[in-house]
Specification:
This protein has helices at 7-15, 19-34, 83-86; strands at residues 2-5, 44-46, 53-58, 61-68, 71-79. β2 and β3 (53-58) form a beta hairpin. The protein is 33% helix and 34% strand. By secondary structure, the protein is an alpha+beta fold. Strands 1-5-4-3-2 form a five-stranded mixed β-sheet.
Length: 88
């Protein structure tokens, strides 16, 4: 799968100072890159009301992604209490 990142996602990850979370994000990106399809990916959930928008749960943080035509776009990363205010 092809991977893309929005500027918002990159800025939010850079603002995170926790090295454990940053390494987990890197691990998730590598897993998504290695997947042929997203069906078997752990902690992936489709958001209701949207056709191709998903979230990946990571402890108390969420990663918002958009999947279109074999392209996964990482859109947002934030704490679970804040991500749904701005995503999608």
């Amino acid at each position: 799968m092809q991977i893309e990142f929005t500027n918002k996602f990159q800025k939010q990850v850079l603002n995170c100072n926790d090295q454990g979370i940053n390494s987990k994000i890197y691990s998730i990106i590598q897993q998504v890159k290695a997947c042929d399809n997203m069906n078997g990916f752990p902690n992936l959930k489709k958001l209701t009301g949207y056709k191709n928008i998903y979230r990946i749960r990571m402890r108390s943080y969420r990663i918002g992604i958009l999947i279109e035509n074999q392209t996964v776009t990482f859109v947002a990363f934030d704490h679970r209490s804040d991500i749904y205010k701005y995503f999608p």
